[in-house]
TrEMBL record:
Coiled-coil residue spans: none
PROSITE patterns from the UniProt entry: ARGE_DAPE_CPG2_1, ARGE_DAPE_CPG2_2
Keyword list, A-Z: Dipeptidase, Hydrolase, Metal-binding, Metalloprotease, Protease, Zinc
Alphabetized GO MF terms: acetylornithine deacetylase activity; dipeptidase activity; metallopeptidase activity; zinc ion binding
Homology family: Belongs to the peptidase M20A family.
One Pfam family it belongs to: Peptidase_M20
NCBIfam families: dipeptidaselike, PRK07205.1
Lineage of producing organism: Bacteria, Bacillati, Bacillota, Bacilli, Bacillales
InterPro entries: ArgE/DapE_CS, Bact_exopeptidase_dim_dom, M20A_pepV-rel, Peptidase_M20, Peptidase_M20A
Record has Secreted as a keyword: no
Protein name: M20/M25/M40 family metallo-hydrolase
Any single GO BP term: L-arginine biosynthetic process
Cofactor(s) this protein requires: Zn(2+)
Length: 428
């Protein structure tokens, strides 16, 4: 797991690299591994993506993984260094072990196991490595513009047994002129519930009293009051505690006012479903809409909220945008779209779904778990006939984007067997 040692967090336009030198290093590292294992490899000259390939034939099966990771967050919440793979209690700890370096490497060795057995590949198998999954997917956009698209495939970047529906992913800013003296920056990413938000302005004693009255956890020193939350992935925002929301609610309670403070405290509050904006927005296939304030910035000129919304597959994105824009306008905030990924839905009787499910059930003997829908955004959206397939099992905890991220050794070895058998079947 040398890949975990590379802190491949995005750094925009760092030198000649589109997403930073560390992400480029992670890409070259994985391609070097694949070449050593006997794959043919390709490195995009601009550094957006790479791939490793084996097999013969016109048709191609794709396995899509990503090598970029989210920031480590608060280092004091990690029991081990986030970018040092450490084995404890039959688990490997480190940022990227579950999302998505660990499962990607498991897929590589699943194919290598077939190669070692001398099994002929009647179709080509291409392992495609992305570098911008946690932000804008520019890696996959460039790949799809320039390269051959697999006829079908999977991404090992979610849960077992598999995901047949993924909600639409909308990321946006709400912006307005900052008419206040407040200066505030908090949050690391659209798609992570922020686990802390710090305030360094005046009236800190009043703020601490308000936080105590509201029963919001916080820490304080002589200069800073930090509201503590719980970080989870935005697809399950209801399982987290949003520190930005709590800080703004508390600031409102002691008399502070601004466009974002009013919007969050009055409209969002601590509701992870955005019901005061969208009503009861859900469908049977994919569940409830999810709403996450991931970042805030208040500088001399503007105040900005960065928001992540997971839209049910049967809901209309334009209606969601209309409702949010109208509500934001009431508070002097303007809607500015940052990114959108369409929803996907593949029927359960599709050949790909049935094949992957059969291999999962044969290995695990689990005939109870069924294909699921997800609010996650995986590379399955990038190409047709592609689904998310593992690598977290139904009984396991999802630790992606959290402190002390890990994978269980026994589980990842089982995932490798499933992937090997699935790739074998898909290439027959």
């Amino acid at each position: 797991m040398n890949s975990v040692r590379i802190p491949s967090v995005i750094q925009e336009n760092e030198g000649q690299y589109p997403f930073g030198a560390q992400i480029d290093l992670a890409l070259k590292n994985i391609l070097e591994l694949c070449e050593h294992l006997g794959f043919k490899t390709y490195y995009d000259p601009k550094g957006y993506y790479g791939y490793a390939e084996i097999g013969e034939g016109e048709e191609m099966i794709g396995v899509l993984g990503h090598l970029d990771v989210v920031p480590a967050g608060k280092l004091d919440e990690w029991r081990t260094p986030p970018f040092e793979p450490v084995i404890q209690d039959e688990k490997i700890y480190g940022r990227g072990t579950q999302d998505d370096k660990g499962p990607t490497i498991a897929s590589i060795f699943a194919v290598k196991a077939l190669m070692n057995l001398g099994i002929p590949f009647h179709k080509r198998v291409r392992l495609i490595f992305g570098t911008d999954e946690e932000t804008l997917w520019r890696c996959m956009n460039r790949y799809c513009e320039l390269e051959e698209i697999p006829s079908m495939g999977f991404t090992p970047d979610s849960t077992f047994p598999l995901v047949y529906a993924e909600k639409g992913l909308l990321q946006l800013h709400l912006e307005g002129k900052n008419d206040t003296s407040l200066r505030l920056t908090a949050g690391n990413a659209f798609n992570a519930v922020p686990d802390h938000a710090s305030y360094r302005g005046e009236n800190r004693a009043e703020l601490k009293a308000a936080l105590k009255e509201l029963d919001f956890a916080y820490e304080a020193d002589s200069e800073t009051v930090t509201v503590n939350g719980k970080s989870v992935h935005a697809q399950v925002t209801e399982k987290g505690i949003n520190a930005i929301n709590r800080l703004l609610i508390a600031l409102k309670s002691i008399g502070y006012t601004s466009k974002t403070i009013e919007f969050v405290s009055e409209v969002v509050n601590e509701d992870p479903f955005g019901k005061r904006i969208f009503g009861e927005c859900e469908d049977e296939e994919s569940g409830k809409l999810k709403f996450n304030v991931g970042k805030i910035e208040m500088n001399e000129e503007i105040e900005r909220l960065s928001i992540d919304i997971r839209i049910p597959v049967k809901s209309d994105k334009e209606e969601i945008v209309h409702l949010l824009s109208e509500k934001a306008r009431e508070y002097g905030l303007e809607y500015k779209e940052f990114d959108y990924l369409r929803s996907i839905y593949i029927p359960k009787d599709h050949f790909l779904i049935e094949t992957l499910m059969n291999e999962y059930q044969e290995v695990t003997k689990d005939t109870v778990s069924q294909p699921i829908s997800s609010g996650g955004a995986t590379y399955a959206r990038a190409m047709n006939n592609t689904v998310a397939f593992g690598a977290v099992f139904p009984h396991q905890s999802k630790t992606e984007h959290q402190p002390n991220e890990y994978i269980e050794l026994e589980a990842i070895f089982t995932a490798m067997i499933i992937y090997a058998k699935a790739i074998y079947r898909l290439t027959r």
